[in-house]
Amino acid sequence: MNADDDDRPGERFTVSIGLHEDFIVARAVGELDYTSARMLQQQLKDAWATTQPGALVVDMSGLTFCDSRGVGVLVLLLRQSREQQSTLVLSAIPPLLERTSTLTGLRTAFQIEASAEEAIQVIQGAPQPPAEPDPV
Questions:
Q1: Is the pTM of this model over 0.85?
Q2: What is the dihedral of CA 62, 27, 118, 81, to 10 degrees?
Q3: Kind of pairing between the strands at 55-66 and 23-32
Q4: What is the chain's pLDDT, residue by residue, as a tens digit (136 residues)?
Q5: Which residue blocks in the chain are alpha helix, DSSP H?
């Protein structure tokens, strides 16, 4: 999907979401700002609600910008993943976001991998949370 309320060429934001095994991989491309952050949040919320994934990978290799609203959405996703006892992994975060997350102390809160492929490998190798026992 695209943030169409912004017709500036080269600055369009897109999110592609795919389901791999029991986890979601979302690839964000463009500028993650006030307008597009709402779209990212809603799309991931919808995907999470319909699939109940064990993990979410957010591939940020295509981001060209991320403002405070974008960081806020990432924090909300982290909170949601913890509430659902799921895993959130950010991959290939841009240098500016790396610096911002380090300065704000958020760097230690997120699991960050160098690439989406590495994030997927980490998730596939991670022990899964115990299954809920079937009611008798």
A1: no
A2: 130
A3: parallel
A4: 444 444 444 468 999 999 888 899 999 999 999 999 999 999 988 888 877 778 999 999 999 999 999 999 999 999 988 988 889 999 999 998 899 889 988 899 999 999 999 999 999 886 554 445 555 5
A5: 34-51, 68-83, 95-104, 116-125
